[in-house]
Amino acid sequence: SVLQQAGRNPSQKTINKYWTSQTTSLNFDDFCAILKKEKPATKNELLEAFGKIDTDKAGYILHDELFKILTTRGDKMTWEEVTSITKQADFNCSGKLDYNKFCELYLTTSEQCCKAARGRLENDPRLRQQHFGNQSEHSSEEITLPVSKSSLRVSRKTD
């Protein structure tokens, strides 16, 4: 969930790289190292994913098709969650998701959220002075995390 809040959408395989049967917790530095390694999805990656669903290459996906996919595959979303997405992303009230526009909206919103969070951190003197983990002692590049398979479940519910 925290990785998703930071703009990442990790697969279970990715989670398993960092959270193993031996892992009991991660400190802030570990989290920062993961963020540096796991980059947010690009517009091209998002469009490619939607393109696999849009077999006609029409540039949109019917809401019914999106409901079926998001409520039955992978980390299943609820009907209410999918309804929230389709209401916000039906730009022309056609019952279709224009996934090119949706990707632009998603990336713009994500960027705005990151800028706002950075601004709050920079403007709050208490947060500026706070030190997390062992950042001053080690660079995050030096952190290595164990690799193992685990059954940790991560929900992919997003706003």
Characterization of this structure:
With 159 residues, the chain is mostly helical. The chain has eight helices and two strands; from the N terminus they run ααααβααβαα. The protein has helices at 2-5, 12-18, 28-37, 43-53, 63-72, 79-89, 99-123, 125-129; strands spanning 60-62, 96-98. Strands 1-2 form a two-stranded antiparallel sheet. The protein starts with a helix and ends in a 30-residue tail after the last helix. Mean pLDDT is 75; it is low at 132-159. Residues 131-159 are annotated as: Disordered. It holds the Pfam family EF-hand_7. It is found in: Cell projection, Cilium membrane. This is EF-hand calcium-binding domain-containing protein 7.
Per DSSP E runs of 2 or more residues, the count of β-strands stands at 2
> Which architecture name of the largest domain does CATH use?
Orthogonal Bundle
Gyration radius, in Å: 18 Å
Distance N terminus to C terminus?
12 Å
How many structural domains can be distinguished in the coordinates? 2
Determine the strand fraction and express it as a percent band. Answer: under 5%
Helicity range: 40-55%
Residue runs with pLDDT of under 50 for 5 or more positions: 132-159
CATH superfamily of the largest domain: EF-hand
> What structural class should be given to the helix and strand makeup?
mainly alpha
Protein name: EF-hand calcium-binding domain-containing protein 7
GO biological process, one term: positive regulation of protein localization to ciliary membrane
Subcellular location: Cell projection, Cilium membrane
Keywords: Calcium, Cell membrane, Cell projection, Membrane, Metal-binding, Repeat
